[in-house]
Amino acid sequence: MARTIRFHRHGGPEVLRIEDIDAPPPGPGEVRIRTRALGLNRAEALFRAGSYIEQAQFPSGIGLETAGLVESVGAEVDCVSPGDAVSLVPPRSMRRWPVHGELVTVPAELAVKHPPTLGWEAAAASWMQYLTAYGALIDIAGLEQGEHVVITAASSSVGLAAIQIANRIGAIPIAVTRTSRKAQALREAGAAQVVASSEDDIEARLKEIAGEAGIRVVLDAVGGPAFLPLTAAMARGGTLINYGGQSREATPFPLFDVLRKSLVLRGFLVHEITGDAARLAAAKAFILDGLGDGSLKPVIARIFPFEEIVLAHRYLESNEQFGKVVVTL
Which of the 8 DSSP states describes residue 136? Predict the structure, then answer.
């Protein structure tokens, strides 16, 4: 038996329960991991609330990120061995492979032997944020040295990962955050410029920062009315990649800017990368190199014990965090 986080109905953090369930042994091509730390993501809050891209089947497990020790392996597994310290590439289905529990069984291809310099907390906080930021900025947009890139929801884990990745390749990250309260922290985290969306004229500030060249790449997690000033500040042929919808307001379609400047507005989910072996291999190599040399370093906002999973989810939804929320066992 192993303690596992489950829920029996959709709702807020209060629906989460810690329950004892049987932990299945690994089948062919699978590994069983005894977890040490769990990373929390917005996707889990949406899944719990019934608003995610896949629906739960009750009683449902939850979770996309974990790190721990390989306890046992199934047949035909040779990429990891019992005793290896690993973290997980997020599974394609949270319903099929929820990983927030003491013992989890997942496909062996998801397990990554991370740099030994990483602690459990940082390892559990790595893959979702860096794969999302890498996939959008490097794999899709082809961000290059010397280019400006606009990053909304910049104090989120993906936002901070995007700032680090931009700096790693010599691009110029512009952080967009709701108020100036987190501006200094964002500068210390590597943002070259900070724009407060509720205080500044977004279009004017971005045009002032980027000059005549304009903004070719925007990474957006918010949607909503900010689409208009963001696209208005973009360069001809620019690409806006959206990976979330944090705004509760409608998202207008900036038709004439899209037409006039031949813009690309593109949705993105991390499964594009994790579901393609070649693209995932390139992403893992980039991220592991960055984690190894220190240019990529997960920012952890707060750590909760496993028993306080409800409080951890409440904090996740508070929008007060700067970086990743982590739970330890």
Answer: I
23, 2 Cβ separation under 8 angstroms: yes
Q: Copy the structure tokens of residue 141.
A: 């947009």
> pLDDT tens digits, residue range 139-192?
999 999 999 999 999 999 999 999 999 999 999 999 999 888 999 999 999 999
**What is the number of domains present in the chain?**
2
Do both 114 and 138 map to the same domain?
A: no
Tell me 225's DSSP state. Answer: G
CA gap 325, 299 in Å, rounded: 9
Distance separating alpha carbons of residues 25 and 135, to the nearest angstrom = 33
Determine the residue type at 264: V
Query: Does residue 224 sit in the same domain as residue 258?
Result: yes
Domain span including residue 65: 2-126+298-328
User: Do 105 and 162 fall into the same domain?
Assistant: no
End-to-end alpha carbon distance in the chain: 15
How is the beta sheet containing 172-177 ordered, strand by strand? 193-196, 172-177, 148-151, 215-220, 234-242, 264-267
- Both tokens assigned to 139: 């794999």
Domain holding 46: CATH number?
Answer: 3.90.180.10
Nearest partner of 189 among 206, 210, 175, 171, judged by Cα: 175
pTM of the model: 0.93
Q: Give the three-class secondary structure for 28.
A: coil
Judgement on whether residues 259 and 302 belong to the same structural domain of the protein: no
CA distance linking residue 102 with residue 248, whole number of Å: 35
Could you tell me if 154 and 173 lie in one domain?
Answer: yes
The angle subtended at Cα 151 by Cα 147 and Cα 154, nearest 5°, is 140
> What digits encode the pLDDT tens for the residues 7-30?
999 999 999 999 999 888 899 999
- Same domain for 114 and 133, yes or no, is no
